[in-house]
Amino acid sequence: MAAIEPPPHLLQCFEEKELSQECRDFISSLPRERGWIRAFSHHYQGFWISTMAIQGVLAFQKNFQAHDTDVLLVTPPKAGTTWSKAILFALLNRARHPNPQRHPLVANNPHTLVLTLELNLYNGNQVPDLTSFPTPRLFGTHLPYALLPASAKDSACKIVYMCRNPKDTFVSLWHYVNRAWSTSSAIDSLEEAFDMFWRGVSPFGPYWDHVSGYWKESLENPHKVLFLKYEDMKEQPTTNLRRLAEFLGCPFSPEEEAKGIVNDISTLCSFDNLSNQEVNKRGKGLYGEANEVYFRRGEVGDWVNYLTVEMTEKLDRITEEKFHSTGLKF
Ligand code: PAP
C-alpha cells in the first residue's frame, strides 16, 4: 500500500505573517498570552487558540456543513488523537482493507489518513471541497463543543470524543512541544508549562472546560456523542472497539467476531505496531515534523516521572474542583 501524499497547501507552515488581514485585525482584539509553539494563544469564545490555528478555526466554524453520516473525532491535544484516528479509520474501512499487512496504516501516519478540520482542511485561503471524501466522512478536530459549527451539533453526525487524565495529557503536551518544535517552542521550562496548563492556557484549553463540555453532551445526547477515555481504551481495547462500532452503527457481525477482526484492529492500532512502522519511525508529518513525535511512551501514569508532589497536588485539586459536580473521574 503506497503512502498518500498530502495536498501541497498542507505543507505550508503557519506563521503569523500568513494570516489574512481580516484575521489579523480580528485576533488583535482578543486577549492573548504567549503561545506554546511560536507566537501567541488567543482567548476566543472562552478557549485558548494558537495563532497558527485561529484562522482555520474561524473558517471551519463559518463554512463547514456536516452531513448526517459524518463522523467527527474530537480530542484535546495529546489525549490520544493519533491512536483514535487510527482506530476509527481501521474500524470504518475494515471491509475495504481486510489485510493488516497491506493496510494504509502500514504506510501512512494516522494524521495523513484522517485530517483535522481546523488545522489541515480549513487552513488555506480557500474553502476546501470536501465532497470527494468517501461516506462516511471521517474528520478530526480539537474544537471544544461550544465552538463547533452549528451543523455539527444540529445534524445527525456522530461525535466520538477521546480524552485522557490531565496529568498525562500535560506531560505528553510538554514533551511534544519540546520534541516536535524545539527550535520554535515558546516555553522554557516544565514549571512554566505547568503554570500555563494549570491556569487553563493550553491549546484548545482550559482542559477541564473542554472535557466537561463533551461529557455533559454525551450524558444528554448519548446517541450523538460517545465519550471515551484513553485509560479505558488502554485497559480494554476490544471492549471499547465494540462499543465504538455499535455507536457508529457498524457493529461487528458474528462472522467478523469469529474471524478475530476485533483483535486484528486492536493489534494493528496498538502503540507497538504503529510506532514500529517505518513511516512513523522515519517519516515526516504534515508540517514537516517527524512522525515519531506522535509516539513517545503511550502509557498510563507516566506523569509520575515528571511532576513534583506540589504539581500533582495542584492538578489533582483543580481537577476535583472542576469535575466535582459532573461525576467525572480519572
Ligand atoms: P496530537 O493531539 O498532537 O495528535 P496525540 O496523538 O493525542 O497528539 O498524543 C500523542 C500521545 O499518544 C503520546 O503519548 P505520550 O506522550 O504519553 O507517550 C503517544 O505516545 C500516544 N500514542 C500514540 N499512538 C498511540 C497508540 N497507538 N496507543 C497508545 N498511545 C498512543
Automatic annotation (TrEMBL):
Its EC number is 2.8.2.-. Keywords: Transferase. It comes from the Eukaryota. GO terms for molecular function: sulfotransferase activity. The keyword Transferase applies. It is an enzyme of class 2 (transferase). InterPro entries: P-loop_NTPase, Sulfotransferase_dom. Residues 68-327 form the Sulfotransferase domain. Belongs to the sulfotransferase 1 family. This is Sulfotransferase. It comes from Morella rubra.
